[in-house]
Amino acid sequence: MDTTIAKNEAKRHAGKANEHPAVKMLARGGFVVMGILHILIGWIAVQIATGSGGGEASNSGALSTIADAPGGQILLWVAVVALAALGLWRLSQLFVGEEAKDKAKGGVLAVVFFSLAFTTATFARGSSTSDGDTATDVTAKVLEQPWGAVLVIIAGLVVLGVGVYNIWNGATKKFKEDLEAGAGSGNVGSGNVGSAIVGAGMAGYIARGIAFSILGILIVIAGWKSDPEQAAGLDAALRTLGEQPFGAVLLVIVGVGLALYGIYSIARARYVKM
C-alpha cells in the first residue's frame, strides 16, 4: 500500500512538473538550443568537406563556436537552463507516460539532455572538452572490464539501431505525428511553411540517421578490435564518411541535412505537443 501511495505521489508531482508553464516554455527553448547546435555541426561538417575549416563536427565543436562568440558565455548559461528543463520534461514522461515505449523514450532522452546540459555548463564555465576524447576514454574503460568488448559491441549496435530508426523516421515522415499533435488545427504539413518544415524534418532525420549509423559501426569495430580509438564520436563518424569515394560530396549533403534538422528542431519548439 505504501509503495502504491509513493508511486501515485511521484506521478502527481511529475504531472505538475510536466504541465508547469515555466517548464514547458524553457523546454521549448531546449529544442531551439538543439536546433542551433545541429545547424553549427552541419556548418562545420560542410567546412570540413570543402577544406575551409578544421573544427570538431560535434556538440563540443558547436558549443566551442558559441563560447567564442561575443556574449557566448551568457548564451551558454541560458542554453544550460533550457536543456535542463527539456531533460526535466522528458524525465516527467517516465512517470506520466501511458505506454511503456513513451516511458522508456522519456527516460533515455532525459539522460541525453541532462548530459548535454552538463557539457554545456562545462563550456559556460570557460572549460572545454572533446566528444571524441570522452567517447574514447569511456570505451577504453569499458573494454578493461570483463566482457567489455561484448558490451561495446552491444552499445554500437544500439547506436546503429538509433541511426536506422532516424532514417526510417525521416523517410516515412513518422515525426509528423508529434508536430500535428501540437498544431491542433493541422497547420503543420499544409501550405508552404508546413511543407518546408516537413521537408527539413525528412532531410534532417535521414542525415542524423546516416551519421549515427556510421558512429554505431565504428563503435562495433572498436569493440571487435578492442581499439577504443575507433569510437571517437560524431566528428570521427563524419570524417570517416568524408574519406569515402565521393566523400566530400556526401559530407556536404549530410552537413546540409544536419543543418536542416536544426531548422526543423527550432520549428518543433513551436509545434510539438507538451
Automatic annotation (TrEMBL):
A Pfam family that the UniProt record links to this protein: DUF1206
Membrane-spanning segments: 31-54, 74-96, 108-127, 147-168, 205-224, 244-264
InterPro entries: DUF1206 (IPR009597)
Keyword Acyltransferase: no
Domain DUF1206: 30-93, 108-172, 203-271
Alphabetically ordered keywords of this record: Membrane, Transmembrane, Transmembrane helix
Protein name: DUF1206 domain-containing protein
Species, as recorded: Corynebacterium suedekumii
